[in-house]
Structure prediction request, 302 residues.
Amino acid sequence: MAGTVVLRQPIATDRRLAATTEPWLLRWLLTGVAMAFLALFLAVPLIAVFVQAFERGVTAYFAAFAEADALAAIRLTLLAAAIAVPCNLVFGLCAAWAIAKFDFIGKNVLITLIDLPFAVSPVISGVVYVLLFGLQGWFGPWLIAHNIQIIFAVPGIVLATMFVTFPFVARELIPLMQAQGSEEEEAALLLGAGGLRMFWHVTLPNVKWGLLYGVILCNARAMGEFGAVSVVSGHIRGKTNTLPLHVEILYNEYNFAAAFAVASLLAMLALLTLCLKTLVEWRSHRAMHEARLLKAPREAES
Prediction:
C-alpha cells in the first residue's frame, strides 16, 4: 500500500505541472505584451509629465507652487482628505464588522450601497449634491434662510470627496474579516471580554494591515478626485479649487509649465501610494506567514 502511494505521487505531480506549464514562447509573448502595455500607457505618460514639468528649469518648477492659488489648492486638497479619510475609516470599520460578523435584515442592501460609488460616475454624484443642496435644490431654500452654503464651498467638496471614497476601506476589510471568521471573537467573549475590549485587542490587530491598505487607497483617491469635486466646487480660484482643478485651469490658460509642475505633484503622490501599497502587502503577507508558522505546532499538538 505504501509503495503504491509513493509511485503514484510523482505521476500526479507531473500531470499538475503539465497542466499549468505553458510553452516558453507563449510565456514570453504574454509577458512582453503586458510590459509593452504598461510602458505605453503608464511609464511614457508619467515620464512625459516630469519632463514637461522641468522643461523651464527647477526655478520655474518651484515657482508654480509658490503662487497663492496653488497654495490654496494644496491646502484645500489636504483639508478635504483630512476630513474624508478618517470619516471613511470609521464607516469602513463599522460596516465591515457588521457585515462580516453578524447577520441582519438588509445586509445585502448595505453591501450593494457600499459598491454604489464604483457603479455611478463621479460627475453624477456631484450633480446629485447640487440637486440636494444647490440654490434650486430640495434643501436650498432652507440653507439660504439659515445662511449655510454647501455647494460652491468647502462643505460640498468634502461631501463629494467622501462619497467617491467611502467604499475603499470597507471593501478591503469585508473579505478579510469574512475569511478570518469569528472564532477568536467568540473565544474572547467566553473569557469574559466585553465588546469594545474584544474589538481593540482581537478584531483590530487582525485587520490592521488591510485597514492601512484601504486608508492608503482612500487617501490617494481623495487627493486626486476630479469629476465630483468639479461639479460642486464652482471653480473659484483660491477658494474652491483643489489640485486637480487647479491643473485644469492652468492648462486651459496655456500655462503648461505650471500645469505639469502641479500635475507632477499628483504623480508623485501616486508613486508614493504604490510604494506604500507594496510595503503594506509585503508586511501583510509576512505577518500571515508568521501566523501560520505559530499556528502549525498548536494544531499538531491538538
Remarks:
- The chain has a mean pLDDT of 84.
- The chain has 15 helices and no strands.
- The two ends are 28 Å apart (CA to CA).
